[in-house]
User: Fold these one by one.
Assistant:
Number 1:
Amino acid sequence: MKAVVLGGYGLIGSAVMRALAAAGFDVTGVGRSAAAARRMGPGFNWILRDISSVETPEWRNVLRDADVVVNAAGALQDGGRDDLTAIHETAIGRIAAALEGTATRVVQISAAGVGPHASTEFFRSKERGDAILQSSGLDHVILRPVLVIGPAAYGGTALLRAAAAIPLIGLQILPGAQVQTVALDDLARAVVLAAQGAITPGTVADLTEAESRSFPELVQTVRRWQGRPDPKMRLRLPGVLLKASSAMADLLGHLGWRAPLRSTAIRALSDGIAGDPGAWQAAGGFRCRSLDETLAALPSTVQERWFARMFLLFPLLILLLALFWVPSGAIGLIRFDAAVAVLTERGVAMGPAQGAVALGALVDLVLGLAVLSRRWLRPGLIGMIAVSLGYLICGTVLTPDIWTDPLGPFVKVLPGIGLALAVLGLTDDR
């Protein structure tokens, strides 16, 4: 049987593709990033398309031989790279039209808590997409997982790991929120059963453990799983600070960053993430593992601890780079004559000196602002490294005495290069 998985290199999509392949399916993934597809590993077929922009005739061609279509594509919030309506509704409508009259089964991975009156557009748009599929007449199963826990971490699960990794302090975030979880392997197994026809057609079911716990209790459980000691003190994060952080994260979303503190994620957590396993088990499903069982099956390795710590440090490192390069360029322009004098006093002609200072200041400003955008982060970092090396080489030729300056301006460029290299090594988000 042939299965096509939309969003095949995401947290859920990649696990689903591997589980379907292990069950004997011929699996093809659909996604827009060739680099992310390559990182999924060899042995899979890929169709590189932006799911939100594919029209019905092209879907008809892409899905013409599919026995099963699994929709694992989704986005948390509108932003620089995401359009909720296009991904959650328009794409589903076009796929349903393309499959009209076929026996293809569609397995839709939705989310627990969806509804027309839900508190966020994420849940409302997901519900509208589910409704389109339910009214299409296609053979379908809709699975609605709660918070998914797996070896990899994106968004909310990355935030959970990072919150657990904060040294000494246990932040009490949203103490009233109740959360249930589901193992990523259980979700992938459920998709395989649905794809094989073992789940009743038309089933709409939550995938969840039976137990629930508060969000601080969840963080503490993950902290112990990571092998970290209990915090020395517990601090409740003020609501106003959490709202301010969400507003900043929403702003960063327009620059292409999928920050886990965006308002949709915080609102979803504050509402609680809960489901009812009854419908799933009634449709022929299995008992989903508890959080303790899920974590017991996942090794907490050094990679896990590195990720949690670096997830906290990554935005700080980018901010430090921006705060180094932008003021550097601004000071060069504000104190233009003094900067030019550094060169002219060492024998450089006035014209070339002015040109070098002006160009250098503008380049510093551009690079400092570039790293604040997700799209321009890698080019900006590479530019910083190249320009820093250029500064050192040209400075050594034109002003070698600055190497012995008591304040060490040339020497201080070296850790800046190291910082840019470190951030460059952390830029992958899939």
Number 2:
Amino acid sequence: MGTTGYIMELQPFSVNDGDGIRTTVFMAGCPLRCKWCANPEGRDNKIKIGWYRRKCIGCGKCVEACPEHIGIDLNKERSKCVACGRCTEVCPTGARSYMVRKVDSDDIVEAVKKDRLFYAMSGGGITFSGGEPTAQPAFLDELTKEIYDLGYSMAIETCGYFDFDAVKPSLERMDMIFMDLKHVDPALHKKYTGVRNEKILDNMTRLQELNSDIVIRIPVIGSVNDGEETIRKATRFVHEKIPKAKMELLPYHPFGHIKYEAIGATIDQDAFYRPAPEAMNLLRAIVKDEGVSLIDFR
């Protein structure tokens, strides 16, 4: 038995989260509450079951299996759910399914081993994402130690809001670190994510202590941080404080909205929008103009 932790998904054959073909481990838990979050089910470290209304045929098998006698619409009685999973076992259409599950680190390691040939042939490896992987430091440490010993390349995607010294051993095992810079203004960062950005900016600066390749990612969200001056200020910070880093600008996408429905949460879909390709090209030109190299894994 290894260390247990909570994951949302183990996604093989990923090509957007680092070099080559990768397996992405989406770990649950996050200290931020981004208003546009694409994985709202992963905000907490606990088992979670989703209900997809569009898949439900109303057969009632979930009701029969539930020890708490919850009705078909799980979201109306979600506070009663003990996440035993019995409903997921009997649902014929997948309308009830695990969105967060508890796993053993040894099981994750055995699963990623199955694709070692693809890692070797493509220069790929394992990427830890989320949620926020640093929100489970012991689980992350155990996973990275075991995978490091296997010789697989590793990368991490992080919001940057963590205790650097506590997570540093895991970070030192990474070949590449992606860290988000959601907004350079502390007050606006708190408005949209729930926390100020000073700790994140300090941690970005400390990435200089590591030998990993560094990519500072900006999720470009219309009406939030898509202004030319905002991107210029962010780029100047990266150029000054993390000169070895590259940057990646990622246009906002609404792909996570179905997950809000599955957990009975709401999102203001009209509050944010995806910047036009022309606008993204202009922002990328600003990054280059400020002397920072761009990279694109999308």
